Model the fold of this input.
Amino acid sequence: MEENLKRLNKFISETGYCSRREADKLIEQGKVTLNGVVPEMGTKVAPSDEVRIDGKLLRENNKKHLYLAFNKPVGIECTTNLDVPNNIVDYINYPERIFPIGRLDKASEGLIFMTNDGDIVNKILRARNNHEKEYIVTVNRPITDRFIEKMGNGIPILDTITRECKVEQISKYVFRIILTQGLNRQIRRMCEYLDYEVTALKRTRIINISLDVPVGRYRALTNEEFTQLNQLIEPSSKTEEASLPKIVSKTTQNKTPWRKDTTTNATKSFGRPSPRK
Done:
């Protein structure tokens, strides 16, 4: 019998209602009931149990999982809360229930995944899994060599030091940056620390998927893309511990694989995933 039990948040995510993280919030808010009773966090669910959210009965999801690449416009909120104006779910207006994997600030635009597969969310979002996300950023004053060096070597924000990352100047006010972590408003905070203000921010790639649709449009991931994505995220930890940001000293951080190689040019340091065929 024990092997048939699932953690409540996992059961909710597998129905396609939301991600595990969002499920935890709903449980904490008392919006979830298990057999008519508000359960505790970590409660396990049997196949015969009745789970409801706001009184609505959840059922096992036998539908095919959906994976969309969406180009989020500026002004759209990455939330499944339909009471929030300009929320991403209403904007897309997809015929089936889907939710975003991660976030993009309201003032930012670019690539975000939408899905009904709560399990994949954990693999992609775990903070220590080193999955690349690429951004094009415009700032309010001329970029200097010192700015590029400081951004790449790590910036002290939010009681930690950001991981070393790849940074490349594109023009006088524009640079490209590849991150492997997702701290709250990370790029904006990093720039602010160096007395720069972000005036435009666009995410152009997540792992192996590059942005290739117009603003406000979406497309389904191809079978080839999803197969490659699954292979790249398969080693990812699904434990709660892996979701916590690791605080490291500057000395330790300089020993990470993300240390910049000054012997190579900027273009070479920005390796790209193989293009779709």
The chain has three domains: 2-57, 67-126+210-233, 133-208+242-260. The mean pLDDT is 83. The domain at 67-126+210-233 is CATH 3.30.70.580 (Alpha-Beta Plaits). The first helix runs from residue 8 to 14.
